[in-house]
Amino acid sequence: MQADSSSETKFAGQTQTAKAMAKFGDDDGISDTFANMAVGECDSKRTSYIPWDEYFMAVSFLTAMRSKDPCSQVGACIVNNEKKIVGIGYNGMPRDCSDDILPWNKESEDPLCTKYMYVCHAEMNAIMNKNSSDLSDCTIYVALFPCNECAKLIIQAGIREVIFFSDKHSQKPVTIASKRLLDMAEILYRQYVPTQKTIKIDFGVTYQAEQSDASNQNGSISPATPRDINKKRDDYLAWGEYFMAMAFLSALRRACIVNSESKIVGIGYNGMPRGCSDDKLPWGKSSFDPLKTKYMYVCHAEVNAIMNKNCADVAGCTIYVALFPCNECAKVIIQSGIKKVIYFSDKYKGKPSTIASKKMLDLAKITYCQYNLPCRKVIIDFEAIDWNIASQLPPSS
Length: 397
Ligand SMILES: [Zn+2]
Ligand SMILES: [Zn+2]
Known about the structure:
Its EC number is 3.5.4.12. Belongs to the cytidine and deoxycytidylate deaminase family. This protein is of the alpha/beta class. It contains eleven helices and 13 strands. The protein has helices at 52-64, 122-128, 148-157, 173-184, 203-206, 208-211, 239-249, 301-307, 327-336, 352-363, 385-388; strands at 75-79, 85-90, 139-144, 161-166, 188-191, 198-201, 215-221, 253-258, 264-269, 318-323, 340-345, 367-370, 375-381. Helix 1 (52-64) packs antiparallel against helix 7, helix 3 runs parallel beside helix 4 and helix 9 runs parallel beside helix 10 (352-363). The protein is globular, with a radius of gyration of 21 Å. Residues 121, 123, 146-147, 149-150 line the site of one zinc ion. One zinc ion (ZN) binds next to helix 9.
């Protein structure tokens, strides 16, 4: 069933600029940074936060940048009723099948020498990588309308809705068959139209004051970089870069927990506690009355990422955070069993809350290190989609 897409949430008062903007609280670990979003007044709730649909579609595009396919990078993101991400995938060779050995070619006289025989689509991988017990009533966000093979998996997984970006292969039999199946199974599908053309995750701009040397020098990564189409691409996002970008993509949503299999098991952002209206609580940073400041009420991203986990526990996991965790978050990190903290900035290192945090993390033998990979700009370019998914499907089908 085709659902109406005109009821999409729109940004309230958002600017169309794709420039990364940053703003830090000056007296705490709470930052109001977001690549690409306008920053609202400090004393009121931001109204320019990224809508959920846009966020999850951006996650799927960001994930596509992990793909090694030279021609076609597709990502998928599965979200449950509580808006938690429960599965992420990108197109690639099956687990344990070396992508250096299998072919990436699109064309060959021998079908066994093309990638089509071997590549798993993003939808399949997102479903198989799920870290919740089942996917019933979930929504899947995909760049390209799912093919019939993926539609079978989506239906059997119990997914209820498909949100796609492009339907460029709508005339191909694989897409027609896919819609036939989805219609019969009464699975909703609708096209997503982004409110902005690109989202830039620019570590360099965001943390310029602190990290100006490490950043900015390494060029940028975006899907539309020309390359040899018969070879595995080598400029795909590294895991660390991907997880850190995921933390940054989340705007105020700024912590990302990853398990030993490189699966994201929790994402969190700063916000008022569940069920506590963020219209009624204060967002101010300074007041004579501490009850009129946000500090009494806001939950930090680390705490929320841990509480929002979608697996039984986060023992042994790694948490990626924009800013070194405060002492309150360190307590929760330690109690949760997380074993490693990777932070981007330590700008409050002189403050008691950071010193106490390190003292406890040291005692608990939790390792922490500053993210030191090259910080390329990550550009999520919704407009590059036609190029980006040029050859997900074999030419003949
Ligand atoms: Zn497919
Ligand atoms: Zn904290």
